[in-house]
Automatic annotation (TrEMBL):
PANTHER family named in the record: SLL0237 PROTEIN (PTHR30006:SF24), THIAMINE-BINDING PERIPLASMIC PROTEIN-RELATED (PTHR30006)
Coiled coil: none
Listed Pfam families: SBP_bac_1 (PF01547)
Protein name stated in the entry: Iron transporter
SUPFAM superfamilies in the cross-refs: Periplasmic binding protein-like II (SSF53850)
Gene3D superfamilies in the cross-refs: Periplasmic binding protein-like II (3.40.190.10)
Organism: Sinisalibacter lacisalsi
Keywords, ordered alphabetically: Signal
InterPro entries: SBP
Superkingdom of source: Bacteria
Length: 338
């Protein structure tokens, strides 16, 4: 009987040790919110999982609300954060989160080599890679000699154009950049002229792309990543980088931004993921996949869609664009809110 009791006791001790081992063996994880299209961001996050063994819980958002929806959620969760990292396909709303106190400073060693303007001086975010705002034209519906070459040509041809709702995503950033470069009155006048002239306002850049590719409209404003999807499919389309002449306004280049969430539940894993996203290898992968067309580091890679690009970008800095966007936000909301 004593022998049986001894065996039972050893089994119970062993079970306790096993339970303790299993409890301490909980897999590491990290939660990321991202506005980057899932088709591009998910392979990067899965590669991080495979390389580190850290499970990634990712929240993606819909095309129409994209960055704004994620930003509102992060602000709402500020008192009890669920996310660790925010990977934004643009920069304007990242600055909004910084102003709201949602972000935590982190000087990632992977940010070495990025342009100075791509790294926040207080280390609340870092930017890499870029897409450009372009005019997307259907070549069956419009001969090359008729393509607009400047954004100032568009209001007079508004009924031929489609663009995404400028309250969201990169179109909102574009509106802010125009306000910074031209002044708020001229930027607001540009969008009012497009709207009153019959331009089609749709739910996102991908919708613009599909409408142009199908010939439902002759041209539209979208981003290079969306344009590349149709180009690769062999659609009768072409891209125009607007205002590229010497001394011209230039086109908006929109970089990705990466930031840590203050009070996030997995700070160590968050730093590792941020380092991974900001690395040259990740940027090269995103160029290869077609998400990034304008590299942030010279000589890193050459994109399949456009090859080696030299693009004249708009000159206002990130802070100036953010300030200008805040200055026109109420007027833009009144103009485009349903």
């Amino acid at each position: 009987m004593r022998y049986v009791l001894w065996i039972l006791a050893m089994l119970l001790v062993g079970a306790g040790v096993f339970a303790t081992f299993r409890q301490g063996d909980t897999p590491r994880e990290v939660t990321i919110y991202t506005s980057v299209d899932q088709v591009y961001s998910e392979p990067i996050l899965r590669a991080f999982e495979a390389e580190t063994g850290i499970r990634v819980n990712a929240l993606y958002d819909a095309e129409a609300a994209k960055t704004v929806g994620l930003v509102n959620r992060l602000i709402a969760e500020k008192g009890a954060p669920l996310a660790d990292v925010f990977w934004n396909g643009e920069f304007w709303q990242t600055l909004a989160l910084q102003e709201e106190g949602v972000l935590a400073p982190y000087a990632s060693p992977a940010a070495e080599g990025l342009p100075a303007l791509f790294v926040d001086p207080d280390a609340f975010w870092a930017a890499f890679g870029g897409r450009a705002r372009v005019l997307f034209v259907n070549t069956d519906r419009m001969a090359e000699e008729d393509w607009p070459r400047s954004i100032f040509d568009l209001p007079g041809r508004a009924d031929e154009i489609s663009f995404a709702n400028p309250l969201f995503g990169s179109t909102a950033t574009h509106a802010a950049a125009l306000a910074a470069a031209l002044g708020p009155d001229e930027a607001l006048g540009f969008f009012e002229a497009l709207k009153s002239g019959g331009a089609r306002v749709v739910d996102g850049n991908a919708v613009v792309r599909d409408m142009v590719a199908a010939g439902r409209v002759p041209m539209g404003l979208t981003d290079t990543d969306d344009a590349c999807v149709s180009i690769k499919k062999g659609a009768p389309v072409a891209v125009v980088f607007l205002d590229q002449e010497e001394g011209g306004l230039g086109t908006l280049v929109v970089p990705n931004t990466v930031a840590l969430i203050a009070g996030g539940p997995h700070p160590e894993e968050a730093r590792l993921l941020a380092d991974y996203l900001l690395s040259p290898d990740t940027e090269a992968k995103l160029i290869e996949s077609g998400w990034v067309q304008i590299p942030s580091r010279p000589g890193i890679a050459e994109g399949k869609c456009f090859g080696k690009l030299t693009v004249r970008g708009m000159q206002p800095g990130v802070a100036a664009i953010r300030d200008a966007g805040a200055g026109i936000s109420d007027a833009m909301r009144e103009m485009f809110q349903d």
